[in-house]
Amino acid sequence: MTSMLTSSSTPVIFAIAGFDPSGGAGIIADIRTIVAFGCTPVAAVTSLTMQNSTGVSGAIHQTAESLRAQISAVVGEFSVAAVKIGMLPTPESVLEVARLLQETKMPAPVVDPVLRSTSGYELMEPKAREVWLSELMPLARLITPNIPEAEILTGIEITNEHDMREAAHKLREMGARAVLIKGGHLEEKSGVRGRRSVGVDRNRHAIDVLDEGGSVKVFRDEWIDAPPVRGTGCMLSSAIAASFGRGRNLQDSVGAAKRFVADAIRHAPRLAPDPVSGV
After folding, report:
1. Span 221-251, pLDDT tens digits
2. Could you give the CA distance from residue 141 to residue 55 in angstroms, rounded to a whole number?
3. Each residue's pLDDT tens digit, 16-34
4. 55-61 and 178-182: which strand pairing?
5. Can you tell me whether residue 177 is helix, strand or coil?
6. CA torsion 11→218→229→157, rounded to 10°?
7. Angle in degrees, CA 106, 112, 118, rounded to 5
8. What's the half-sphere exposure (Cβ side, CA atoms, 13 Å) at 266?
9. Rounded distance, CA 119 to CA 122, Å?
10. Phi, psi of 87 (to 5 degrees)
11. Which residues pair with residue 56 across a beta bridge?
C-alpha cells in the first residue's frame, strides 16, 4: 500500500543522526527545522546520547543492523526528496550508511561531520573518520564542517578566511563534491565571545566559505552578538537539505539555511553554553 505522504506534494526529508534527549541538537533539532521549512520529516537514529545543556555524559550506539533496518523501512515506503546525515559514531555505522546510499534511490546527502562535543566527548571513533572520508564523503552533495572539524579532517590550522578556503580546497581534493566551512569558531579563536545581550554588531561579520567544484562563494553576514546556541550545526544542515527538497540550488539553499539559523540565534532562550557541536 502506497503511503499518503509518499504521494503528497510535501517533500519528505530524511534525517539520519543521533538522539539528544534534551532536544537541543540531533534528530529533534533536525525535525523542528524540517517542519519549519514546510517539509515532512522521517528519521533514523544512529546513537542514543546522554546529554543536556551542560554536557555529554555517554552514548549507546546503534548497530549497523539496526541502522539498516531503520533506513530500509523508511525508503521502502517514502519517496525521499533530500537526506541529512549527522552523527555516525562507528566505522560500521558509516560504512552501512554509505552502502545504503549506493543501494537505494536516496539522493546525495548533506553530511555534517560530527566528531566531538564542545565539552570534549568523542562522538565519532577515530577509525570511523577514516571510513567517513573514504566511503561517505565522496557520496555527499555537500559536507558542512565547522572550523574545529575541518582542522581535524585536513590537518590545517584555521585562523582566517584564507585558511578556510585552503581547508575547503583540500577536502575537495580528498573527495568532497562541495564543502561549506562554517566560520563561527573564528570568534573563539580570536578570544572574542558573545556578550549577555543579543544584537547585531555591524563591525564584525560571520564568514562561511562554500567551495563547489572549485567555485568559491563567501557568505558574509552581520555578526549576531549573543551567547552560544545549541544545535546550530544540526539546524543548518537540515535546513540545507530541506531547501534541496524544495528545489533550491546549492547557493540558495545555504543562504536560506543561514537566514533560518540566524533567526534561531536571535530568538533562542538563553541557557548554558553549548556543549555539543551537534549530533
Report:
1. 777 776 677 889 999 999 999 999 999 999 9
2. 31
3. 999 999 999 999 999 999 9
4. unpaired
5. coil
6. 120
7. 155
8. 12
9. 9
10. -65, 120
11. 51
